[in-house]
Amino acid sequence: MEEYESLQAQLELNDGIPYTPDWSAGGDFIQIIVDACLSARPSLVLECSSGLTTLMLARCCQMNGRGRVVSLEDGEQYADNTRAYIDRYGLGRYASVIHAPLRRSMLDGAEYAWYAIDKIPEKGIDMLVIDGPSGFIQKHSRYPALPVCYSRLSEGCRIYLDDAARPDEREIVALWQARYPTVRHEYRETSRGCSILTVEYPG
Ligand SMILES: C[S@@+](CC[C@H](N)C(=O)[O-])C[C@H]1O[C@@H](n2cnc3c(N)ncnc32)[C@H](O)[C@@H]1O
Fold it and tell me: Is 141 in the pocket of ligand 1 (CB under 6 A)?
């Protein structure tokens, strides 16, 4: 809880936060993405899964005086809940939560359920935060994020993958590196593991 309280204080979110013990991203992961957002000052953050991370990144964009977060959320009630917090803090200008139900499609010879992509921005993504879909849905649940979004990323885009200590996420990172050999990877020892990838020349 200490990490969340410290983030709450740093971002002046004194009217409650959408924290859920088993589902919110770890405080140490959020601190990494908050620091990155405040220092890189991205124009466009794409996020896979909404909640506490959306609220905190939206606040960072407000503090930066620029940028916005587009958050893909497959659960309608979770999307509504996140929107309620965004509204409570008057951050509507800095975040859009998109209800994007998971759809099945083939990718690299396997079938994945992943967010409906028709509302994903077509280009200009400077920061990609991946904390969904949930791992129990399928093997390599978060794999589609990079192949689907790659051509939409800006040069130098940083990708932050939560839960990167899990074997499934380690395999996903290895698959991404095999498919995109120029992508650089750094692993940070957080409570659940954080992989940070940098994309030099997408498209
Ligand atoms: C690991 S959660 C992370 C959400 C967000 N990034 C955060 O840090 O708050 C990923 C997904 O789990 C789902 N989820 C959230 N709360 C849930 C709950 N209480 N039970 C089942 N699924 C939940 C939502 O669809 C959400 O997008």
Answer: no
CATH C-level class of 2-199: alpha beta
Q: Whose CA is nearest to atom 18 of ligand 1?
A: 23
| pLDDT tens per residue, range 15-63 | 999 999 999 999 999 999 999 999 999 999 999 999 999 999 999 999 9
Q: Distance (Å, rounded) from C-alpha 150 to C-alpha 131?
A: 17
* The token pair that represents 60 in the structure block: 């960072």
With 0-12 / 13-18 / 19 or more C-beta atoms within 10 angstroms meaning exposed / middle / buried, residue 122 is exposed
pLDDT at position 117 is 87
Residue 183 DSSP class: -
Q: Which residues pair with 197 in a beta bridge?
A: 159, 185
The pLDDT score that the predictor gives to residue 203 is 63
> Pick from 13, 84, 90, 18: which is nearest to 5 by CA?
13
